[in-house]
Amino acid sequence: MGISAAEPKLYTSGFVRLTRPQFIGTMAGLMMCLLLAALDQTIVGTAEPRIIASLSGFDRYPWVATTYLLTSTICLPVFAKLSDIYGRKWFFLAGAAMFVASSALCGAAGKITLLPIDGMSQLILFRGLQGLGAGIMFGLVFTIVGDVFSPIERGKYQGLFAAMFGAASIFGPTLGGWLTDNFSWRACFYVNLPVGVLAIAAIYFEFPNFKPRQMRRIIDWWGVLTLASCLVPLLLALTWVTDYGWGSARVETLLAAAAVMLAAFLFVETRAKEPVLPLTLFRDPVISICSFANFIVGIGMFGVIIYLPLYMQGVLGVSATRSGSLLTPMMLAAVFGNIFGGQVTSRSGKYKTLAIAGTLFSAAGMIVFARMGLTTPHVMVIAGMVLSGIGLGFVQPVYTVAVQNAAPREHMGTATASTQFFRSIGSTVGVAAFGSVLLTM
Known about the structure:
single chain, mainly alpha, Growth Hormone, Chain: A
């Protein structure tokens, strides 16, 4: 018998079943949102000098990045947990709408006379809101992929989305420079508006509003409060350590406050009925190992991205433009690794071997970087970047798929976001630790 109009053909086999139009619209909307969130991390960097000159805020410019990092990291586990309780769609749409609206506000920073603060302070405030929206989108996009596709299909699509993120990282600085030179630094924010509106429309009309069943609708407010109270001083301390050093009173006080609030958070979570970050998840060795591995990935990845251009400019003597373009082999290798790793995982259903291979490739690349000096030829730098890129590309989709397959259905969002959460913390630790080593050598 044929399929009647009342029984449309379904194109996915996960927890959420989609028809062909729903599948196309949902995938297009998710990819556009991920593209925006990824571009936003790199596109603004090349506009920094123009922003500083326009808003006269050189002394406060680090806060533009710090505020974004704080809000995006804090909201990852919080909104993932809320989506486990109330559903994904409306939280994702709220995050996308906040991202688009705050992008418009960032582009207008310094021209908004209703606020009693100067242009740089406006930009810092709006970047915090933008980070909140980006964190919600980034935390839920991979969770939705896990909802839509069955365990055997997830690897392929997680790899595809990870490759999209890598490609955006490659072209972000170039696009930011082109927009700044040909239009204005404000265009780096305004470019998010048309793409964001299309993404919101696609998700609104095509992604179904499914809700979990048999869930107790209890929000762990004490967990949210103690988690935020731990992360804010921790991230501030790691951000300021390169300026003030590990032994400064400011950094030590912040680290002590973070440790106290971490203990409070763990105490609260052991007694909450619906904890914001269920500690029982980490009794599963797959989830605990993948979380730790993502923390290490964050340290290595951002350490290379931040400090390798500094080595190429300061030691090898290449220009700033060329040092940025020399990162392209690493990003291209990472995109290849994402796609290849996703395909292998999807077809074989196994990911342990790929995770080990990715770790070995990354370690080999880091060894090459560690042995570089004044006479290192450019080809060795490129070889290290290719090795590291392939390794990082292999492991990124693997860890996400492994966690999704191991996590209970009711904690899918929380478990998936935990991988991004620990990677974000790792990136901050990596930048601070390597910066401290650089300044004390």
